[in-house]
Design goal:
alpha+beta; four-stranded mixed β-sheet; 4 strands; globular
Length: about 140
């Protein structure tokens, strides 16, 4: 008698589909990380059903896995960990004390300047209210 096949739900990475830089990063994930989560733009997602807001999705990528949500650099680490092999080592390293804080600073800097990153366009800029809040906070 064979046991029933248990299929784990595939995690979901939510990104800003209007941002050329973000879209470029997603294409990298799809090409380079063989085992990757489902990937969907927030503009084409049912955010309420996922437990997310538009504001959260405009400011950082979101990783949704069985009701658990992580954002920003932690979401990137989770994508890498889900990818297994060497990617997972990099993802776990990103969560180590000290490295995690540096990864957060780098993520926030990239997010704030994504319109200036390779492949970025003016549409990649964060909403002005977010840019102003971050500039005041720094």
């Amino acid at each position: 008698m064979s046991s029933p096949l248990i299929v784990e739900p595939t995690p979901l990475l939510i990104f800003d589909g209007d941002c050329a830089f973000c879209s470029r990063c997603v294409r990298f994930i799809e090409r380079r990380i063989r085992r990757h989560p489902q990937i969907q733009s927030w503009q084409r997602s049912d955010l309420v059903a996922l437990g997310l807001t538009q504001e959260q999705c405009e400011t950082a990528v979101q990783f949704v896995d069985r009701g658990s949500i992580t954002s920003a650099h932690v979401a990137v680490a989770r994508v890498l960990i889900y990818g297994k092999k060497g990617w997972a080592l990099l993802g776990y390293a990103m969560l180590l004390p000290g490295i995690k804080q540096v990864a957060g600073v780098v993520y926030r800097w990239v997010a704030k300047n994504r319109d200036r990153m390779p492949g970025g366009t003016a549409e990649c800029a964060l909403p002005q209210s977010e840019r102003t809040e971050r500039e005041i906070g720094n």
